[in-house]
Amino acid sequence: MADLFILKTSLLEALKPKRLLTALLLLILPALAAIIWRAIVPGDRFDPAEAYNTLAAYFVFGFTLTILSVIYGTGALSAEIEGRTIVYLLTRPVPRWRLLLMKLIGAWVGITVTVALSVLLLGFAVYGLKPEWPRIVSDLRIIPVGALAYSSLFLFFDTVKTTSYKIIILIKQNCFYL
């Protein structure tokens, strides 16, 4: 029962105004880039597959997934520490690993839903009302895996050190793409 309460609280944290606004901006960014691409490139030279693959690789997987993982993964415990509710959580009869697991699941759900909506919006922006579903479905299948990998990595950094943003920036700049 305590697990469900922690999970519910973690999911509600994703709906806080700052996180929600950031998620919405990151959600529409790839679609806006696709609309600009369509407007700049002449109609006979526009290749929807090239536009989708490029924007999905760089904007959705290279940027949106990573930034949302940083926000939700590192914010899972930081919100409890800043709100001074971590002491309350640690005194409950819940093992610490289960507390972290529920926080991780909450972050994973928020990241997965937002990035999946971003992929769908990008697909409609590039392909119009007749999207190429095999490409989109294959991207939708890999999103939960990438979200779990990134969010668990950043949650780990958050548990090791609360000022983990320096490490995150170094990893992002050097080589850490899925």
Please tell me about this protein's structure:
Helix 1 (2-13) crosses helix 5, helix 3 (48-82) packs parallel to helix 6 (133-160) and helix 5 (96-127) runs antiparallel to helix 6 (133-160). This protein has 7 helices and no strands. It is mainly α and 178 residues long.
Q: Report the structural category.
A: mainly alpha
The run of helices and strands is: HHHHHHH
Q: Write down the oligomeric state.
A: single chain
Average pLDDT? 81
**Radius of gyration from the alpha-carbon trace, in angstroms:** 18 Å
The number of E-state strands comes to 0
Biggest sheet, open or closed, and with what strands and sense? none
Number of discrete helical segments: 7
Unreliable runs:
none
Shape: elongated
Defining key terms:
elongated; 178 residues; mainly alpha
Produce the secondary structure layout.
Elements lengths: L1 H12 L3 H24 L7 H35 L3 H6 L4 H32 L5 H28 L4 H10 L4
At a glance:
With 178 residues, the chain is mostly helical.
